[in-house]
Design goal:
This protein has helices spanning about 45-55, 60-70, 135-140, 145-150, 170-180, 195-200, 235, 255-265, 280-290, 310-315; strands at about 5-10, 20-25, 35-45, 80-90, 100-105, 115-120, 125-130, 160-165, 185-190, 205-210, 220-225, 240-250, 270, 300-305, 325. By secondary structure, it is of the alpha/beta class. It folds into 2 domains: about 5-140 and about 295-325, Quinone Oxidoreductase, Chain A, domain 1 (Alpha-Beta Complex), CATH 3.90.180; about 155-270, 3-Layer(aba) Sandwich (Rossmann fold).
């Protein structure tokens, strides 16, 4: 049982398969100056969690990632890049939030969302959750939504702008479809045929089944390509971009990152892997869309914290649609006590 000084969390102390994650008791964080302590009700198990836990890092980024993630063992043993919950306590200098506030937040590279409590800077990416949605629904807007929105701030999307989303059924892809449609874009979704109904329901105007057609071999050209898979570098899609178009690299290897500036300069087409710094205003924008019914939660499966290994196993399949939600609302009994 959680005490005043400890909390239940999903912890991994070495890199590897889903089974390295254990439900355990760890020290409960205390908010430092400028921080808000959240009692976490829900988080998501994302592709980012999979990559960090398994060290499945894009080519060339292994050494760089080790600096932040750890070399022999994880530097941050609690995964989870997002959280939805209730403010439990605040530091003395915090004025933007008060105990009892219902919020959503991006923990980002600091992780920590897969625990009963998490600390977030009051000036970070944290805002009031949608009033009309549950914690489980609300948390789905954070990781995928703030990522897609960050990239879209790099370009101009207006009515008639043609947008292709490669990998349209994942957390970022489903968000990108909806956000592009809100801006007036004409959206083409690249996904498997089994996901056609889903992406169409989110607003996709056209669907390309990648198992039957390579979108780069067709005659269609796009103003913006959102690359969420890692198989569409600039060299492959350059001819599929209109003059002055943009390739937004949600996933890129080291070579793609290093070459992007030169490719942009030589081609006159924006190539970028920079999604910018996330802010509370970004989340507030997503919340406003959700509260008005213009942005919907996409949940594939929901797991209790006790079932964290099963959640990771499912994400590892690469077949999740939208978001896999992790529920932390009620105390859980560990079912996977190590190896």
């Amino acid at each position: 049982m959680t005490t005043n000084t400890t909390m239940t969390a999903a912890v991994y102390r070495r890199f590897g398969a889903p089974e390295v994650v254990q439900v355990d008791q760890v020290r409960k964080p205390t908010p430092k100056a400028g921080e808000v302590l959240i009692r976490v009700h829900a988080s998501t198990v994302s592709v980012a969690d999979h990559r960090v836990r398994s060290r499945d890092i894009p080519r060339g980024l292994g050494l760089l990632s080790a600096v932040g993630l750890g070399v022999l063992r994880p530097k941050r043993p609690i995964l989870g890049m997002d959280a939805a919950g209730v403010v439990e306590a605040v530091a003395a200098d915090v004025t933007a939030f008060a105990p009892g506030d219902e919020v959503i937040a991006m923990t980002g590279a600091k992780f920590g969302g897969h625990a009963e409590y998490a600390c977030i800077p009051q000036d970070g990416a944290i805002t009031a959750k949608p009033r009309n949605l549950s914690f489980e629904q609300s948390v789905t807007f954070v990781f995928g939504g703030i990522t897609a929105h960050g990239f879209f701030k790099k370009v101009t999307i207006r009515p008639g702008t043609t947008v292709l989303v490669n990998g349209a059924s994942g957390a970022v892809g489903t968000a990108a479809i909806q956000l592009a449609k809100q801006l007036g874009g004409h959206v083409t979704a690249v996904t498997s045929g089994a996901n056609t109904e889903l992406v169409t329901s989110l607003g996709a105007d056209e669907v390309i089944d990648y198992t039957k057609q390579d979108f780069t071999t067709g005659s269609d050209r796009y103003d913006v390509i959102v690359e969420c898979v890692g198989n569409a570098p600039f060299e492959r899609v350059a001819e599929s971009l209109n003059p002055g178009g943009a390739l937004l690299l949600v996933i890129a290897d080291l070579q793609g990152m290093l070459r992007s500036r030169g490719q942009s300069r030589r081609s006159g087409k924006l190539v970028t892997s920079d999604q910018g710094k996330h802010s509370a205003d970004d989340l507030a924008y997503l919340v406003s869309l959700a509260e008005s019914g213009r942005y919907r939660a996409v949940i594939d499966r929901t797991y209790d914290l006790a079932d964290i290994v099963e959640a990771h196993r499912y994400v590892d399949t690469g077949r999740k649609r939208g978001n896999v939600v992790l529920r932390l609302t009620t105390p859980t009994t560990p079912r996977n006590q190590g190896l």
